[in-house]
Design goal:
This protein has 5 helices and 10 strands, in the order E-H-E-H-E-H-E-E-E-E-H-E-H-E-E. The chain is of the alpha/beta class. The chain starts with 17 loop residues before the first strand and ends with a strand.
Length: 183
Amino acid sequence: MNRSTSVAPTGTPPPIRHLHTLGPTGTNLEAASHEWLRRNGIDGTVELHETIEAALEAVPADGSHALTACAVYPALHTLVFANLHRLRMVDSFIMPTHNMVLASSGTAAPRRVASHPAPEGLVPAGVGTVTVNSNSRAAIECAEGRVDGCVTTIVAAARHGLKVLRDFGPVPMAFTVHQVVTA
């Protein structure tokens, strides 16, 4: 539901029709954005960005665009508090993520794994970690041979032809929606 605290000049809350979030395609945030639009009966769009921070900078302050974030996104608290003058959390909801997996391009025991910081705890002990901007980016890094494993979503692993070594299942996750408003 859209519980906006910002008010358009007409006195009615502006309807959110466009969500900006973390890409590339296959992220849990992309799925959450589409789910929020579906739950709210909105025929809207989802635009993907390299980072949540880049997504925030791309959100126009017209009320029809908003940012979708995740409660476990690294430094979300910094992003919110540094932008209190223009960022309003208007909704939050819980939905399961895609299954989170440890995947590889073929090896059974990867030595270097790409991971977004949020699920980095799923990297096996003793394995080197390369930090990337999203779960989908981790799959791309693995598929392109820059690492031999990744922590990613099952959707991104399948999209890039990776072998699932361990399926951690879906994770119940809190997602947030933020409108950018003029000060």
